[in-house]
Amino acid sequence: MDGILPKLRWIDKQRLIERTRRCRDARLKEHYLIIVNLIHGRSPVETAAALSINKSTVYRVAGRFREQGEVGLLDRREDNGDMKLDERYLSELYEVVRGCPEDYGWKRPTWTREMLVKTLYERTGISIHVGTMSRALRMIRARRGRPRPTVGCPWPKRRKNQRIRAIREMVASLPRGHVAVYEDEVDIHLNPKIGLDWMVYGQQKEVQTPGQNQKRYLAGAMNAVTRELVWVEGTRKNSDLFIALLWKLVQVYAQAKVIHVILDNYRIHHSRITQMVVASAGGKLVLHFLPPYCPNENKIERLWQDLHANVTRNHRCASMEELMQNVRCFLRRRAARACRHHQRCAA
Length: 347
Prior knowledge:
Nucleotidyltransferase, domain 5; alpha/beta; five-stranded mixed beta sheet; 3 domains
């Protein structure tokens, strides 16, 4: 291409083609490919289309090659000065993203990239482009997601930690003949929970809802060691449902001296009739109440999350009987998998 590239000898062209093949740096190889395409008679527009780049890049690289030769193809970004996205900047960004914009004087509860750029400039004195902020967020593995609603525990922190530590120590040092289980209830609605799903571009999936909602309730207990699952079903979430689970635990663990039940503070767990049933068990049932609003400490909560993700979310069951059949199948598969895992670990 006269005027764009200088005249090159055949041996120089072959050397450029060979170095293009050997080059492992992506950006440098792109520069070599631009020159090679121009050498073979393609126009700047055709070269840009072939390499999926802007034609201004073709002109810029060709200009540097014309003025400086092969050295002009090298990436010049190392001459820009100190790298802005250094460890200190990324650490500061990590802490800022963990917090809330209102903590940094903004009147908005969620972050935008523009707000992050300004906040980090105030804290570090380093100014970057919004596009560079996107790259910085990827570097710290930040993501946009839905926050999880939580309620703070009303107990003092020391009291809360003492209770959690005592329960963990109890599970870790169970005497021979003792069993510990995590207990909780879950609601099953015929009207499906709506959640995220993959969809093709321009189309939104529809989930047919029965309209008239129906409910069923499960009370479940998961063995803290073997992950074995015991559950009962009911049409009401009351003390009778919880008591039915307690008696089933007594039957399943008939050989156990003591069954330690770790549970939350829901009212059916400490009702008068529940207390009578526990007392009538003659010390075989011991209830260990978690601090209020500490669902992460109840290991069975994760099982209920998986149940919703695999069965109830966006489901297409037309009847409660069909939905409950799917629920039972999931729980049986999960219990069988936990049993196989425990057997492999014990072998």
